[in-house]
Recover the amino acids of this structure.
């Protein structure tokens, strides 16, 4: 091509940003990290979640509701499953029959047509959506690929009563496992604007005679996968709704502040949201975002603890300016395990400035002030974040 005189090269025409994922350039990197366990998935999720929402649930009704609330106008949504998925009929989900005509209806009919993807009844597989996209998707994660102690385990349903594990004992099995992993890679990258991942709860009920009601959908087939995804920080739908509610009220507060400053501009006074109010707002936002349990107010230096069983102590700080204050009166044993600092702008939007070991913060505080507080700038906090391990 380079030797062809009819071909002209122009670097300005290079597409440096993926058109597939215009709201999340790092989506592919996140998906790769999620599937390969390379330790970067949580950090990558935090980078893309505000522009490209990814939420988690165990309830298909909630997944459908989330999708319906997201789409606007002619935007399209749909349910996706792998070819090896087998046990979704109890969730009122059926696999889209093969054939071009069915695919055409699924992708093109409007939301009033039961054959449309928007109707959220028929699910398409990786084969049917390869190279194609929807605006918002629900990936319904079955028991064909399960997280177990830091690795994936692969299963095929025998069509009757049980799942059969696929181990890489032969070349054909190795190729099958590669295909099954790549199927999830394809499905996790089909949405232009956002997705919900639904990992069912399964069926843990027994009959009166002591047998499983459905031994093909036991909770243990799904629980490991759900906990792994949740551990990456992917927000559950329920917490996502709570966070949105807090965000809305916060924006209303800032609008009131702006109105007061405008109305009483002649007095040259600022109606700043500070002190206990901004601190409490920050604690609620962070507790919702990171699934923390808030402590009683007044607990020195400790605002929350983790819910993952480790009971790590967490201090939460929120600010509207370019710095934040910490107590300079402390002993080393009082330093919290973790410190999370967020900044909140005048529109009510917020972002994490620091999330790391408390010791790192308290070793880098400025000189104590007369009030017993030491300050540290957000610029310095961002530099300290470079020293925080990504896992």
């Amino acid at each position: 091509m380079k030797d062809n005189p009819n071909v002209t090269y122009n670097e300005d025409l290079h597409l440096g940003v993926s058109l597939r994922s215009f709201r999340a350039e790092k989506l592919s990197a996140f998906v790769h990290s999620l599937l390969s366990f390379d330790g970067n998935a949580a950090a990558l999720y935090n980078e893309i979640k505000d522009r490209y929402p990814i939420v988690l649930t165990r309830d298909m009704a909630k997944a459908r509701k989330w999708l319906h609330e997201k789409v606007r106008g002619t935007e399209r949504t749909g349910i996706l499953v792998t070819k090896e998925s087998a046990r979704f009929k109890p969730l009122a989900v059926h696999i889209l029959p093969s054939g071009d005509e069915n695919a055409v209806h699924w992708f093109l009919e409007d939301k009033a047509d039961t054959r449309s993807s928007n109707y959220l009844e028929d699910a398409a597989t990786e084969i049917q959506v390869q190279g194609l996209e929807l605006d918002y998707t629900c990936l319904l994660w079955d028991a064909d690929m399960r997280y177990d102690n830091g690795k994936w385990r692969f299963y095929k349903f025998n069509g009757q009563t049980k799942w059969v594990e696929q181990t890489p004992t032969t070349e054909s099995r190795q190729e099958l496992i590669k295909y099954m992993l790549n199927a999830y890679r394809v499905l996790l990258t089909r949405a232009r604007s956002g997705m919900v991942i639904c990992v069912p709860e399964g069926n843990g009920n027994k009959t009166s005679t002591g047998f499983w009601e459905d031994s093909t959908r036991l909770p243990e087939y799904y629980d490991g996968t759900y906990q792994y995804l949740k551990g990456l920080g992917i927000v559950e739908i329920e917490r996502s709704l709570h966070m949105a509610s807090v965000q809305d009220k916060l924006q209303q507060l800032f609008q009131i502040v702006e109105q007061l400053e405008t109305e009483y501009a002649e007095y040259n006074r600022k109606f700043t949201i500070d002190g206990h109010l901004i601190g409490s707002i920050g604690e609620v936002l962070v507790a919702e975002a990171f699934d923390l349990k808030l402590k009683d107010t007044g607990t020195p230096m400790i605002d929350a603890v983790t819910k993952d069983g480790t009971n790590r102590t967490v201090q939460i700080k929120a600010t509207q300016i370019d710095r934040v204050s910490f107590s300079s009166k402390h002993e080393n044993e009082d330093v919290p395990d973790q410190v999370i600092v967020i900044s909140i702008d005048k529109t009510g939007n917020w972002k994490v400035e620091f999330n790391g070991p408390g010791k790192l913060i308290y070793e880098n505080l400025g000189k104590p002030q007369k009030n017993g507080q030491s300050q540290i700038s957000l610029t310095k906090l961002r530099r300290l974040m470079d020293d925080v391990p990504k896992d």
User: Anything to note?
Assistant: The two ends are 44 Å apart (CA to CA).
